[in-house]
């Protein structure tokens, strides 16, 4: 069985765009409207042909103003995201480098850390901004591995891929 990597994060941070960058498809539905991707979406990353892995693009866990507790992680979308993260060998916690850390990011991360899955922090949308400053916004999360990427422009994807393959 191929290893499984899950993309988790609040709506609109660019999970589907990153999914497309890693799988080189347009399968994932990318949309400006938060929460548009509702179902789990599986694809295979073959950027390194010798080491394919399955990638799952979870839909937004909750709406921008809805905290995980208030949905009790019980809604269908939340449940999908939760089980994807629980089954994964590695979780990519995707955040928006332009917006910085939000309360919902904090909450998703708190929940992710209840499981023992390894987690990478992926700071997306770092095109046209200071990537270091964007990453510093998230330093309080205390991650060992942080990756600055621009999924839309495919920046940082090779480093992220190397990091993923080094941990599978
Ligand atoms: P999701 O809800 O987390 O799946 O986010 P999407 O992949 O649907 O992207 C949400 C919005 O952010 C879309 O308008 C994307 O075009 C935009 N976006 C995604 N990645 C990037 C990026 O690397 N840079 C910039 N500037 N915009 C991005
Ligand atoms: Mg999406």
UniProtKB/TrEMBL annotation:
Signal peptide: none annotated. Residues 3-168 form the EngA-type G domain. GTP 1 binds at residues 9-16, 57-61, 124-127. Associates with the 50S ribosomal subunit. Belongs to the TRAFAC class TrmE-Era-EngA-EngB-Septin-like GTPase superfamily. EngA (Der) GTPase family. GTPase that plays an essential role in the late steps of ribosome biogenesis. This is GTPase Der.
């Amino acid at each position: 069985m191929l290893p499984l990597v899950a993309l988790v994060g609040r709506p609109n941070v660019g999970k589907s765009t990153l999914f497309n960058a890693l799988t080189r498809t347009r399968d994932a539905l990318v949309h400006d409207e938060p929460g548009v991707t509702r179902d789990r979406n599986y694809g295979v990353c073959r950027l390194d042909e010798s080491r394919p892995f399955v990638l799952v693009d979870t839909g937004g866990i909750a709406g921008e103003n809805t905290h995980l507790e208030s949905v009790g992680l019980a809604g269908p979308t939340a449940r999908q995201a939760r089980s994807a993260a629980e089954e994964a060998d590695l979780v990519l916690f995707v955040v928006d480098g332009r917006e910085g850390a939000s309360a919902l990011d904090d909450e998703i991360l708190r929940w992710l850390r209840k499981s023992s899955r390894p987690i990478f922090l992926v700071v997306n949308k770092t095109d046209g901004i200071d990537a270091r400053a964007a990453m510093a916004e998230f330093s309080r999360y205390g991650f060992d591995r942080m990756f600055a990427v621009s999924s839309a422009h495919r920046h940082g994807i090779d480093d992220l891929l190397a990091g993923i393959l080094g941990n599978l």
